Amino acid sequence: MPESKSRKKASRPATPSRKASAPTENPVWYKPVMFGLMIIGLLWIITYYITQGLYPVPAFGASNILVGFGIAIVGFLMTTRWR
C-alpha cells in the first residue's frame, strides 16, 4: 500500500540537550566552618546551663539559648549546600 507523502516527517538532526552542569565542590573552608558553627552553638548552650546564666552573655538572660540555637542552625543550614 503506498504511503502518503504528507505523513512522512522530515528527519531533523537531534538537538543537543542542555546538560546540567556538574555540581562544583565546596571550598576547603566550608566543612570546618559548618561543623564549627554547630559545635560553637552547642557549646554556647552548654556554657549557659553549666554557669546558670552567668556566661556567655549575662545581659541576654534566657535569650542565650536562642543565640546558641541560632548559631547551630546556621551550621545545619550549611549542610544543605554541602557537596
TrEMBL record:
Keywords: Cell cycle, Cell division, Cell membrane, Membrane, Transmembrane, Transmembrane helix. One of its GO terms (biological process) is cell division. The chain crosses the membrane at residues 28-51, 57-78. Its main location: membrane. One of its GO terms (cellular component) is plasma membrane. Residues 1-25 are annotated as: Disordered. Residues 1-11 have a biased composition (Basic residues). Involved in cell division. It is found in: Cell membrane. It is a multi-pass membrane protein. The keyword Membrane applies. This is Cell division protein CrgA. Belongs to the CrgA family. The keyword NAD does not apply.
